[in-house]
Amino acid sequence: MKRTVLIVDDEQNMQTVMRMILEGAGHRVFVAESGETALTHVQNPNLDVVLSDLKMPGMGGEAFVIRCRKERPDVPVIIVTAHGTIRSAVKSIHDGAADYLTKPFEPEQLEIAVHNAIKLRDILRENEQLKAAVSGARGTKRLVGESRATRRMLDEIRRVAPYKTSVLITGESGTGKELVARTIHELSPRHDRPWVAINCSAIPHDLMESEIFGYVKGAFTGATQNRLGRLEQAQGGTLFLDEIGDLDMSLQSKLLRVLQEREFSPVGSDQVRAVEVRFIAATNRDLKELVRAGRFREDLLYRLDVYNIVVPPLRERREDITLLAQLFLRELAAETDKKVTAFTPPALAVLDRHGWPGNVRELRNAVERSLLSCSGQTIDVDDLPTAIVAGPVAGGKMSLEKLGEKNLDRWLEEVERGAILDALSQCSGVQAHAARRLGITERSLWHRIKKLGIQINRVIN
C-alpha cells in the first residue's frame, strides 16, 4: 500500500534526493518549497508523513510544525536539519514534531525515519477509531448539565482547552474535578497524547517522588531496573495532579522546577531530561490559606493557577439533579441488567430537595443503592436510601429537625399526597393519566389514594 509523504524544503537538490529515495521505497511524494505552500497540502486526507527543513525563507520549520500540529495533529512531522541547528530541532520535538534527521544522512536513515512515522500515524488512526467505537460506551463519563453554572463552566473549559496553559480546578469533594480535567484534555490538541493522573493524597510521601519522577536502577534498595515516572509517561500529553494541596513541601519545590524549566531528573540519576506536558491540578482545599500557613509554596501556586476553574457544588446547579440521576440510572441499570427505567415524581422531588453535601458522587451512590432496592420498574420514595430521604435539605439543616412534632412517616405521607394531588389536578382527575404521569401503575395509584384518604371529587372541583 502506497503512503503519501510531503517534503517541505527550499533546496532543489535536497528535494530531488529525498524524493528519489522515498519513491524508490514505494511512497507517493509531494513537494513544497515553503511552509506557506506546504499548508495547502496539509489538508490532504491521505497525507501520512511530513518531512520539513528547519531553515526556510518565510515560514520557517519551527512555525510550520506548530501550524501543522494545530491543523493536522494526526500527521507526524519529521524535521530535517543541519548539525548547527540541532537545538532548534529538539525544540521542534517539544512543539510536536515526531522525529528529526541530521544532514547529511544515509538513504536507509531516511527510510527508517519515515517507516517509524508511518507506524505512528497508523497508531493514531487506530486510536481515533477506538475512541469513536467506545464513545457511546462512556455513558455518563462526560460533563452534562442544563444549569447556568454548568454552562458557564463548560464555556470556561472550551476557552482554555486549546492552549497548553496550566489549569487549577477547585471545588468541593465529589463535584467531578477529575472529569473536568479529563474534558479539558479531550478537547485539547493533545487528545491523542497520553493522559496520566496521580492522586497526591493516595500515595505515601516517601514514595511520591519516585512515582512522579521515576528512578534508575540502583537508586534505592529494591530498584532493580529503571522505571519511568508519571511525568515522563505523560510526555506530550497531560499530567493531572489531583489533591495537589496534599503534596509534600520538598516535592513542591521539585515540581516548581519542572514547571519553570521543563526538565527533571529521575531519582538516583544526574541526567537531566526534557519534558513537555500540560499540567492540570485540582484541590478541594484553600491553597491561599495553605500558603499563609506555610504549607504550600506561593510561587508554585502562581505557576499552577494560571487559569482557575471552579466546579460548583450540586446544590448550586439544582437543574442538573434530575438529568444526572436519570443518566446514572441508565448507566447502572445497564451494568446490573435490572429493568428499572425511571424515577417516580415523588422520588425525584426528594432528590431535588436534598442538600447533597457529597455532591455528584453522593448522587451516583444514592441512585445505585436505590436501583438495588427497587423491585419494580420505577424507583419510588421507599426505594431511596433513608439518609437521602431524611438527610440535609438544600439551604437548611437536617430535615428531621424541621419535622417538629411530625414523624418521618407523616412527612413522607405529605410528600406523597402532594405529588398525587398535583398529578390528579393536572390530569382532571383521570387516574389512568395521573398514574402514567407519576410513573406508577393505575392499581398502585388506587391503593395510595385509598391509603391517604384522597377525595377525587375535591381534586376535580
Describe this structure in words.
With 461 residues, this protein is α/β, with parallel strands linked by helices. It folds into three domains: 4-133, Response regulator (Rossmann fold), CATH 3.40.50.2300; 148-312, P-loop containing nucleotide triphosphate hydrolases (Rossmann fold, 3-Layer(aba) Sandwich), CATH 3.40.50; 316-460, Helicase, Ruva Protein, domain 3 (Orthogonal Bundle), CATH 1.10.8.60. Helices cover 48% and strands 13% of the residues. The chain contains 20 helices and 14 strands. The strands form four sheets. Strands 2-1-3-4-5 form a five-stranded parallel beta sheet, with helices on both faces. Strands 7-8-11-6-12 form a five-stranded parallel beta sheet. Helix 4 links the parallel strand 4 (77-81) and strand 5 (99-102). The radius of gyration is 30 Å and the shape is elongated. The relative contact order is 0.07. The model is unreliable at 129-140 and 395-403 (pLDDT under 50).
Strand order of the largest sheet: 2-1-3-4-5
Unreliable spans are 129-140, 395-403
Measure the end-to-end span. Answer: 79 Å
- What is the CATH class name of the largest domain? Alpha Beta
Helix content: 40-55%
Structural Rg: 30 Å
CATH superfamily of the largest domain: P-loop containing nucleotide triphosphate hydrolases
Number of strands: 14
Count of alpha/pi helices: 20
Mean pLDDT: 84
Coarse structural class: alpha/beta
Number of structural units classed as domains = 3
- CATH architectural category of the largest domain: 3-Layer(aba) Sandwich
CATH topology of the largest domain: Rossmann fold
* Major beta sheet summary: 5 strands, parallel
- What is the general shape? elongated
Approximately how much beta-strand content do the residues carry? 5-15%
